[in-house]
Amino acid sequence: MGGVEGQDGSSVSDEEWDRFLQESVKGVAGAPVEPSARARGVERRLKEGAGQAEGWRTYSPARPRRRTGWYVTGLVAAVALLGVGLFPQQVFGLFDGDDGGQSEVPLAAESQRPGEAPGAEPAQRPTRDEPFRGSPAARWADGESGITVPAAEATGWMDAAQVEKALKQSRRFLVDAGLDRGVLRGERPTKAIALLNPHQSDVQDYLRTALSSKTPTPTTDPLLLFSRFRPRQAQLVGDVVKTRGRLSYREGERGALEVTADVTFVYPVAPTGDRGRDTDIVRTIVRREVVMSWDDPDKVITEPGTMSLVSYTLDLTNGGCSDPTGYFTPPFDTADKQHADSEHRLDPYDRSKPVDGDDAQAGGKKCVTATRS
């Protein structure tokens, strides 16, 4: 009798095999069912790899992409912008690198007294093409644009519009006295004088004496208010004078608008007629503090568009240490010797401290040497 071999190797009789086929066709309960092709595929994947097979109708959503990197980048950018807004000078200084502590990006306008002096610069001498090389002034503004004017608010006897006009005229006085090319060559400061109250007798006496005497005294030296070089001795290098400073204001005596100017001027100069040697270039640096009073005409005798001087003083370096002559006298040939012999030294770029000069009415001028120029 023939038979069929089972899965375990045993023999199955013909009768049993026929019965099995008949029961399978009739669907007898318990009869084995041949797995479908999909089921066989699932079983094969289970055997080939670990894990549970995914159902053919199931859905597994993709994991959300984490954006932590974008959040961190945004936070860093926000902190950087805040730092630039609050401490522009210190932040820009971090990126100065090997360019001598300088940057092509100018400093933000000065709105209040800085907390510290500018950082140290490498020892680089000025040149004709770069007269401010090796100096913090390389990043300062040019001329009038370096003098910050605050927003105007009604103060004392003036409304906001009048305060704004007075502030502009106050800056104009500094420009006419310290930047006008004619005045720098020793010419009479006519435009600056026109802004001064002609009825302020002590100032008018000073002006008459200072601008006419060939032998001024410490109290009648025109340099107390005006920047002047003797044309036959010194000439400006280039067309730019660097400035940095600001105006502030408050209510003064008898309801006047009192404006205080604190401005540093940097003048690169060379001997007159010397157009070749960079080694002769000297930077004369003057920091001026001028207090101006725009008086109520109902309380003080004045003229429209003019102001009275309350005080005027300066710190001067590289401008001469001899007796007053009415002109700056840059030490072209004696700069090193002057630096070695001077007992008083000053960082002319340090605007974190008050002006240390003598009051104009007190007289006397001490000679100081710049620790850097």
Verbal overview:
It is built from 9 helices and 11 strands. It is of the alpha+beta class and 373 residues long. It folds into 2 domains: 46 residues, no CATH class; 251 residues, no CATH class. The strands form 3 sheets. Strands 3, 4, 5, 6, 7, 8 and 9 form a 7-stranded mixed beta sheet that branches. The longest helix has 19 residues. About 10% of the residues have low confidence.
Number of H/I helices: 9
| Overall geometric form | elongated
The helix/strand order is EEHHHHEEHHHHEEEEEHEE
Question: How many discrete structural domains?
Answer: 2
Portion in strands: 15-25%
Low-confidence sequence ranges: 51-62, 89-102, 335-340, 359-364
Rounded to the nearest angstrom, the distance between the terminal CA atoms is 122 Å
Can you count the beta strands? 11
Q: What gyration radius follows from the Cα positions, in whole Å?
A: 43 Å
Percentage of residues assigned to helices: 25-40%
| Largest β sheet strand count, sense and barrel closure | 7 strands, mixed
What's the overall average pLDDT, rounded?
Answer: 80
SS-derived structural category: alpha+beta
